[in-house]
Specification:
17 helices, 6-stranded antiparallel beta sheet, alpha+beta, 12 strands, about 15% strand
Length: about 475
């Protein structure tokens, strides 16, 4: 199997990583392999059987041309700065060039200790590995920028957490693994020269159009800010809660990364938290824009030595870029919400309409995902779905009247408008009770529920009668859903 490696970070950024090797698993076996993603990457696996794939994507065998390394990075974790974190359970095999020229990292996650493990075992359990695979594939199908999983492999070993679990490794594909925390590490420990080198590499790799800017480091800040505003707006538009928006979990490429205590909301509540360790709700659904703003301020601080080296006046310009984030985010957010609501053009009343909607969804505890599909059904003349979501048929009558009034500003056929709404509002997401069922079954050796759910979330917009059960929320009386940082 030819990986077409071209390992630029290993080659150009000596001193920004540590050499490392995977721990050999005792009995690797393939759990899942992402054939569509393999084709996107240009990997020909036609002649590779499951045993070969398991060896390659567990760390037992090293692909030809790999240069394994662990990234160095720091990070603010729940607001507290840790000056050295790094890849404690992840190993970058290298970078491959896809047929269209795009560059991707190939990383093993859960493959054993590295120099950054801080006495940890560097391993991962099967549940978190399959959660990352499942949710990242759902996000990709939903059109959200994201890392993706190429393979999941059981190691044959046990991993001790609160109890012993079957071990596993996920192969993660990303545009890169450069994080805000990567910049923080080199700003904290080495200063301007290293920050400049890292910024220059990031521009070359991700944003070559910025190389000719008057201050490429300031331009990098502005671009990453824009990408993060768009990314978090997309999360909120889908009811997604990342759960651990520490700066070491913020990729400068604008991709969603590190699917630990993440989940999608069923019934809407702005302060929803899924993480077992987020006791104060720092990373709740509603606080994600604020946390993105805070993270971008930390990114700006780390970049300041490079920005200042080109032009001291750039420091004030960087501050202005950070101060503008709330307005930038609001613009990105309202743009998504207009599409979800079938509004074709901006109007001064859109903000109030959206804010009123979320107040009603919270007050009535409405299923977030189902509501927007029900609105489209209402445009087709079917009030049944939306009435089924509400405690009383007319519980949202004032808001719906206001929405109709906004729609009437535009001469658009209701059926065409409903179809456009269904194109951006998913019918299927990884419902928490379905995810949990799939992970529990997989740990017991039954991959069928995982495979069925994976197939559903890869096709989130198209209704199928045999998938009807996947579109409904879990029982209202169920205990609050709790997730854990497992990988």
């Amino acid at each position: 199997m030819n990986f077409a490696f071209d390992n630029s970070f290993h080659r150009d950024m000596e001193g920004f990583y540590a050499h490392a090797e995977a721990a050999a698993p005792s009995a690797p076996s393939l759990l899942a392999f992402n054939h569509p993603l393999a084709r996107r990457l240009g990997l020909d696996v036609a002649d590779a059987d499951d045993a070969t794939l398991a060896r390659l994507f567990s760390g037992q065998a090293l692909p030809e041309g790999a240069d394994p390394l662990a990234f160095a990075y720091a990070g603010h974790q729940f607001g507290h700065f840790s000056s050295q974190l790094g890849d404690g359970r992840a190993l970058l095999l290298g970078e491959i060039i896809a047929p269209d020229g795009a560059r991707f990292d190939v990383q093993l996650k859960g493959s054993g200790p590295t120099p950054f493990s801080r006495n940890g075992d560097g391993k991962a359990a099967i549940g978190p590995v399959l959660r990352e695979y499942l949710v990242s594939e759902a996000m990709a199908a939903l059109g959200v920028p994201t890392t993706r999983a190429l393979a999941a492999v059981a190691t044959g070993d046990r991993v001790q957490r609160e109890r012993a679990h079957p071990g596993a490794v996920v192969t993660r594909i990303a545009s890169s693994h450069i994080r805000v925390g990567t910049f923080q590490f080199f700003a904290a420990h080495f200063g301007a020269e290293h920050v400049i080198q890292l910024s220059d590499y990031t521009v070359r790799r991700h944003f070559p159009d910025l190389a000719g800017a008057a201050n490429p480091h300031l331009a990098l800040l502005e671009r990453v800010v824009a990408l993060q505003c768009e990314l978090v707006a997309s999360w909120l538009s889908l009811g997604f809660v990342h759960g651990v928006m520490n700066t070491d979990n913020v990729a400068v490429s604008g991709e969603t990364i590190d699917y630990g205590p993440c989940a999608f909301m069923d019934r809407f509540a702005a302060e929803t938290v899924f993480s077992s360790i987020d006791a104060n709700g720092r990373y709740s659904y509603a606080r994600q824009p604020q946390m993105m703003h805070w993270n971008m301020a930390r990114f700006a601080e780390a970049l300041l030595p490079a920005i200042h080296a080109v032009d001291p006046a750039g420091v004030e310009q960087a501050k202005a870029r950070i101060d503008a984030i709330p307005a930038l985010f609001r613009t990105a957010w309202l743009d998504r919400m207009r599409r979800k609501l079938g509004l074709g053009r901006a109007d001064d009343g859109d903000g109030a309409l959206v804010d009123g909607l979320f107040a009603d969804l919270e007050r009535l505890q409405v299923d977030f995902t189902g509501f927007f599909r029900a609105l489209a059904a209402l445009l087709r003349g079917d009030a049944g779905p939306i009435e089924a979501l509400l405690p009383e048929p007319d519980a949202m009558a004032p808001w719906i009247a206001g929405w109709w009034q906004q729609l009437e500003r535009e001469d658009v056929d209701p059926i065409e408008r409903a179809a456009a709404m269904d194109g951006v509002n998913p019918l299927y997401i990884p419902r928490n009770h379905r995810v949990e069922e799939a992970l529990v079954a997989a740990e017991a050796g039954d991959m069928a529920p995982f495979e069925a759910l994976l197939e559903v979330v890869r096709h989130p917009f198209v209704a199928r009668t045999d998938w009807a059960a996947y579109a409904t929320p879990g029982p209202a009386e169920a205990a609050p859903y709790v997730t854990f940082c497992g990988t």
